[in-house]
Write a structure and sequence with these properties.
The protein has 429 residues and is an alpha+beta fold. The protein folds into three domains: 73 residues, no CATH class; 113 residues; 191 residues, Aminopeptidase, CATH 3.40.630. It has ten helices and 21 strands. Helix 5 crosses helix 10, helix 7 packs antiparallel against helix 10 and helix 9 packs across helix 10. About 24% of the residues have low confidence. Bound molecules: zinc ion. The site of zinc ion has 5 residues, from loops.
Amino acid sequence: MKDVQLRNIALMCICFVMLVTGAGLLIDEKSDNRVEANERKDSEDGWFAAEISQSGRVVVTVANDDPRIGPQIPVTDQAVNVDEQVTEDVTEPYIMINEGNAIIDNDRWRELRGDYSGVAQLIIPPLSDGEEIAIEDDYMNKSLKIMIDNCSDGDFDIGQFQRIAGNIYFIGDVIPEIAGDAVKKVKVVSKDSDVYEGRFRKEITVKFDHIYAYRLHQYADACVVDCSNPHDVYDCIMVVDPGHGGIDVGCNSTGGKCLEKDIAINIAKKLKEKLDKTSIKVYYTRLGDDSLALRERVGLANDLNADMLISLHCNFYERYWVPGVNGVETLYSSVNKEKRIASKKLATDMLDGIVDTTGMRRRNVVNRKKDLYILRNSEVPATIIEMGYLSDKNDLKMLTNKKKIKKMVNGLYNGIIKAYYNMYGKVIE
Ligand SMILES: [Zn+2]
């Protein structure tokens, strides 16, 4: 072995020893988990937030002039060492405001986080006797509604509402312009309780940046809502869009008795009864007589990155006195290069499903390229289904007669099952 080689080996040994020593120091630092203090971020608006440390107790330094703190004791941006006495005092369930610092017990923190890998957790104080909590996913508005019934006036106000996004912890009502917080706005409205006099119903509306899947857990010392990417929760996600609605009635049957918007919603509701029994998570652009912009309809599917978007419509032939213009047609667009094959497949499967089940006339799978907003702007496989002609007597029956509607609903259902299998190889049960 040459001298140079020996020297190199000696150098490597020294480096190795240095590395080990360095790592030891790091481990030592981490294992001293008495206290971690963190960077403070606050604004003139009064919210505050702090980075949550990975180990030890978590100290959130809050603004000195925050009215929620109590005693006005000077605080600094520096790391704060909490002495043993204070740590022993941490007996509150999950958070304690002490001398300007909010201290989250590490065990509690771990308990809240668990194996959770979602985007945010909302923490609501525990319920008292008689109080009831329910959540409602208002996904068209990217909002979560949390309703708490039969509570006292001062309960569940904005200062008691907390959220965790990534490793950032928030209290308060104002939007923190910090990357990583999916929450854009929190609003609390207090109403009189329907059940008990002198009691209140609190409605907490949390506006998000996207649609999430929400799961409510009730523990003895807190209620926690997990907010996750819907695809982490559901295996299959699709959007059903009953066409038109509100002032936009669509087309009419001859004589004007039946409106396209009513037929679409009626069929969608019956389809929902069937799809509710499957493992598919279905989002509906409307289940009432709502006016919706096309942008909102396609936006729902895009925001969800849904497996498919199905829009329900009816046709009308203006020269309705000419007999024989009837049947089912599905439309897609080849504009989106990535989705054109999938969209065409979806349109074909839906047409097959309906025609095979109802025996209606098979028209075509039509490429509408650029002229239909929903198809043009969909980032997911999409089809518009023209379920029949309102100008044709027999088609109209299929879409309005109670018994015959069942066939149409079964046809749509069979088309969806077929499409899931053909497009994704998924067998829906
Ligand atoms: Zn229409």
